[in-house]
Specification:
By secondary structure, this protein is of the alpha+beta class. The chain has helices spanning 7-26, 61-77, 94-106, 110-130, 153-161, 167-198, 207-218, 222-225, 236-239, and strands at 30-34, 37-40, 45-51, 83-90, 133-143, 202-204. 12% of the residues are buried.
Length: 241
């Protein structure tokens, strides 16, 4: 009996995977990611800032008090909400290991080449056994569409469960994009300036970085096995939505 799949069976499998992906996308509030901005299905725009950390405990009492006062002034100066997110994830050293193996391949001395490869294996196993975690700090800057009504947390939660999208909403997002993006950039500048006054450097995540962030957040295990291809070679919805 031939164990190969028939074209009909393959089409059925592709169809089931497509339907599964569509079902998952239905429950995500993200419509698309473009021009360094997360566009939500309700019309809202979000910018994400990666913020550098500082060791508060090592500061003197005077420095700690100055940081606290600067942070209070920063928060009180804002006339829009922000979201502060702390994300813990397993330390990713794929780039570092790739660099070591590249250097090993370039080694002329066989002994040094073997030792370099052994070092890469040692580091890889050490990370696996130790389960070393890495913390990253983000600030989410929002900009909602004009006329958006304030809803309770329970209503917002229900809307997250089924954030239906439509062609009409997509067209509205396209019309409002430039206007909302301009206001969002102003807010990002305000937040970055305020963070600098506290002594914290920040950088707005680019489109590729946003895609990777949400891909890893929604697929924590699978993202370690399947890496995202370069920006020009992938379809955003296949990985994020």
């Amino acid at each position: 009996m031939d164990s190969k799949e028939t074209p009909k069976a393959k089409n059925t499998m592709r169809g089931s995977k497509k339907n599964e992906a569509t079902a998952v996308q239905k429950f995500l509030p993200i419509a698309e990611i473009r021009q360094d901005t997360v566009l939500l299905k309700n019309g809202g725009h979000r910018a994400v800032l990666l913020v550098a950390s500082t060791n508060f405990s090592l500061k003197s009492d005077e420095e700690q008090e100055a940081i606290i006062r600067s942070y209070q002034q920063f928060v009180n100066s804002l006339n829009f909400p922000i979201q502060i997110v702390i994300r813990s994830q397993k330390l990713n050293i794929d780039g570092y290991l790739g660099d070591i193996r590249k250097r090993a391949a370039e080694q002329k001395n066989p002994l040094l080449k073997e030792q370099t490869l052994d070092y890469a294996v040692f580091i890889e196993r050490l990370i696996e056994v130790s389960d070393i975690m890495q913390k990253r700090f983000y600030v989410v800057v929002p900009m909602d569409a004009p006329g958006a009504v304030q809803v309770s947390f329970f209503q917002k939660y229900l809307s997250w469960l089924s954030p239906a999208d439509s062609m009409e909403k997509a067209a509205t997002r396209k019309r409002q994009f430039e206007q909302l993006s301009s206001t969002l950039r102003d807010r990002v500048n305000i937040v970055q300036t305020g963070l600098e006054n506290v002594g914290l450097l920040s950088e707005r995540l680019k489109t590729q970085e946003l895609i990777e962030l949400f891909y890893q957040a929604y697929n924590p295990s699978w993202s370690r096995l399947q890496k995202l291809p370069p920006m020009g070679m992938m379809h955003v919805k296949e990985y994020v939505l």
